[in-house]
Write a structure and sequence with these properties.
Oligomer: single chain
CATH topology of the largest domain: Rossmann fold
Structural class: alpha/beta
Helix content: 25-40%
Number of strands: 9
CATH superfamily of the largest domain: Aspartate/ornithine carbamoyltransferase
CATH class of the largest domain: Alpha Beta
Radius of gyration: 19 Å
Low-confidence stretches: none
Distance between the termini: 14 Å
CATH architecture of the largest domain: 3-Layer(aba) Sandwich
Shape: globular
Strand content: 5-15%
Largest sheet: 5 strands, parallel
Strand order of the largest sheet: 7-6-5-8-9
Number of domains: 2
Order of helices and strands: HEHEHEHEHEHEEHEHHEHH
Length: 313
């Protein structure tokens, strides 16, 4: 039984909702070890040298894709990179056919980003490979939530009892849902803040606080996670203008300095500087945005390593 504690309870990473609290803690403990590796002169370990991983991105991505690729290289895995825009998908090939063709090349694991919610779940039922969800529509982005919570743990020593405000475009954000689920499993209190048009109706059923006043949210929280406005997902106007949104919900140094306590500021990126956050906040000592980027590689190394370990069991 003791051996089982060092394995994840799930074969895939499709969403935070599938992880137990112990799974999350195990990922964090493994990431701690890999973070030490990343700070060594030789930043590579042979852990996955017999594993082939396909990165399949049906949506544009820079940070997540590079972070996964770097994590795979640090673990000595073989990688195949696949961009849907330049593939047969644009000629009408189905998702299952595309992935099965890639798996025929003897791929063990698939890291996939897809514009449709549930694409990873669908794929996991139809192909014989482990699936890591790198973002599915406005549904989930589990590794982002894990690296965010890991960054809070690194800063405060523990996530339990911390108050985290997620501010901005909650409606179109996969980061928001995954963060809420992850933070709650680790014992944090969560508040969402933004204009009522960008707060989904169901959100109250998740047990989060809802606030429409930025200052009240900032005075309540220990951590402010600033989300960008996802204009590419918005088919109607949810607020009059970016300028007006920025005036109501943008975080600047003046507001940060006016608070009666020092909070930490996070952002999953990419940042729209001057909209949801100003440069002097993004680059301030209260910002842990670059820590998030660094921790992303360690977290993704941990996830890939732990999932690959199950293949031999």
């Amino acid at each position: 039984m003791a051996e089982k504690i060092n394995t994840l309870s799930t074969k895939h990473l499709l969403g935070i909702k599938d992880l137990t609290t112990r799974d999350i803690e195990l990922i964090f403990e493994t990431a701690d070890t890999f973070k030490d590796v990343l700070n060594r002169p030789i930043k590579k370990v042979p852990s996955l040298r017999d594993v082939t991983i396909a990165n399949i991105f049906f949506e544009n991505s820079t940070r997540t894709r590079l972070s996964f690729e770097l994590a795979q290289k640090r673990l000595s895995a073989d990688t195949v990179n696949f961009a849907a825009s330049s593939s047969s998908v644009s000629k009408g090939e189905t998702l299952i056919d595309t992935v099965n063709n890639i798996l025929a090349m003897k791929v063990d694991m698939v890291v996939m980003r897809h514009p449709y919610p549930g694409a990873g779940i669908f794929l996991s039922k139809h192909v014989n490979a482990q699936i890591v969800n790198a973002g599915d529509g406005a549904h989930e982005h589990p590794t982002q939530a894990l690296l965010d919570a890991f960054s809070i743990r690194e800063k405060y020593g523990d996530v339990s009892g911390k108050k985290v405000a997620i501010i901005g475009d909650i409606l179109h954000s996969r980061v928001a849902l995954s963060n809420i689920l992850c933070l709650q499993k680790l014992g944090a209190e969560v508040m969402v803040c933004g204009p009522s048009t960008l707060i989904p109706k169901y959100i109250g059923s998740l047990g989060v606080k809802i606030e429409h006043d930025l200052l009240k949210a900032l005075n309540w929280c220990d951590v402010a996670n600033m989300l960008r406005i996802q204009l590419e997902r918005q088919d109607i106007k949810y607020f009059p203008s970016l300028r007006e949104y920025s005036m109501m919900y943008g975080l600047n140094k003046q507001i940060l300095n006016s608070l009666d306590k020092e909070i930490i500021v996070m952002h999953p990126g990419p940042i729209n500087r001057g909209v949801e956050i100003t440069s002097d906040v993004a680059d301030s000592k209260q910002s842990i945005i670059l820590d998030q980027v660094e921790n992303g590689v360690a977290i993704r190394m941990a996830v890939l390593y732990l999932l690959a370990n199950q293949r031999s069991q």
